[in-house]
Structure formats: C-alpha cells, structure tokens
Amino acid sequence: MLAILICCGRDNPLDSTPPDTPIPVRTTDSGGGLPIDPNIFPIYNETYGGGISLDVDSKLWVWSATLTMQELSSGAPEGSKMQEVTEGNVGWCGFGIVPWNGANTTKDMNAFASGYLHLSVKSSVEATIEVGLESMTGPVQKWIFLNTKGFASDGAWHNISIPITDFTAGGVVLTEISQYVMFRVAPSVNGRIFYLDNIYWTKN
After folding, report:
1. What percent of the chain shows pLDDT beyond 70?
2. How many Å apart are CA 68 and CA 88, to the nearest integer?
3. pLDDT, tens only, 161-185
4. Strands 40-44, 23-28: parallel, antiparallel or unpaired by DSSP?
C-alpha cells in the first residue's frame, strides 16, 4: 500500500530537519496487483508499481507550510486520483519527495541517466511552476520552469517529459539523488491552485 503523506516543518529543500508528525493524505495500491516495469519508476502513478513507498522509504515535505495539498477523485488524466496544490500566503511555496530511512538518505537513479522525468500539470492561473531534482553532496539542485517545456496556464492538462540530462547538465549527480522530484512557485499568490498527477521516471 502506498501512503502519501504531508510533512510540515522543513524550512527549505536544503534543510535536513526531521518532519513533524505526518498527516495522511491518501492510501492506494501501489504494488499489489499493479505491473512492475523495470524501465519505469513511479512517484505518483496508479498504473505501475515498483516505485517509492511513501512513509516507508520516502517522505513528502511541504516546505515551511507554504502550501496545502489534497487529493481529488475526479478529473485525473491518469488513474482516478490527482493532487490539488493551493499556494499559501508566504510569498513562495514548494514541496519535495525525498528518499528516507529514518533520516534523509539517497537513491541511486543512474540507470535513468538517458531517460525522462514525466508529469501532468494543470492550472488556469499559475504560470511560473518550477520542477527540480536534487543530489546530496552540496547539495546540488537544478530547477526548470515548466512553461519552457510546453506548459501553459490555460486550464488544460499538459503532459510534460523532461530529459534527465537537463538536470545532470546543471550538476545533479544521479548516483545520490536526495529529492526524487521538487516543485516550487516563487513568488506565489495566496489561494492560487495548480494540479499534479502521473509523476514518474523512465529509462528512455
């Protein structure tokens, strides 16, 4: 079973402070009965198993309570669930999903060096969403504006595929990934909403 959790209390993506008590958002079947494809590493996906197991080997951090998230059960482009993200009143917002073994750890994702990070995103109001990856030493982060990859705030779903080389070109080391995916908006606007679904890595 895959439990997606929101953990508030981390000031920023570089802070290793342990999370506060997690708030359960969803439980769904991630592995039992779902096909496992060695070429696909699902992060938030209802088609394939074999990826992360949140609150077992990974955590979802909401940075400094800068946003809220809730799962919706209609309108998803993949499966039946999607995440609604509402920006807070701090002036910026973000969250990330980290490997976890009781503390921040890393995952060797080098097998995906020639692959892609895939995600689906929708908003009618927020145009400046960024997605990023992080590796531990440094740490090193590489951020990419989704509107440079085909996203537009037109109220439609956009399926985005970003070459992993776009992140490694910015110094991210795949053998020590410390954030599987990160999202941020800066500056953010209180109450603005965007939607996310179908987040996964592929080898090609």
Report:
1. 84
2. 7
3. 999 999 999 999 999 999 999 999 9
4. unpaired
Average pLDDT of 80-103?
96
How many beta carbons lie within 10 A of that of residue 34, not counting itself?
A: 18
Give the phi and the psi of residue 141 in degrees, each rounded to 5: -120, 145
Show the domain range for 43: 2-202
pTM over 0.90: no
Total residues belonging to the chain? 204
Flag whether pLDDT at 7 surpasses 90: no
| pLDDT band per the 50, 70, 90 thresholds, residue 32 | low
Which residue type sits at 69? Answer: M
CA-CA distances (angstroms) from residue 24 to 4, 30, 46, 142, 161?
6, 16, 18, 29, 29
Q: For tokens 């992060």, name the residue.
A: 43
State both tokens at 48.
């394939």
- For residue 50, the tally of other CB atoms under 10 A from its CB is 15
Give burial (CB, 10 Å; 0-12/13-18/19+) of 63.
buried
Please report where in the chains the tokens 């059960």 appear, as a residue: 73
Q: What was the pLDDT predicted at 3? A: 36
Quick one: pLDDT at residue 129?
Answer: 98
- CATH number at 60 reads 2.60.120.430
What is the distance between the alpha carbons of residues 46 and 196, in angstroms, rounded to a whole number?
A: 13
Report the domain count for the chain. Answer: 1
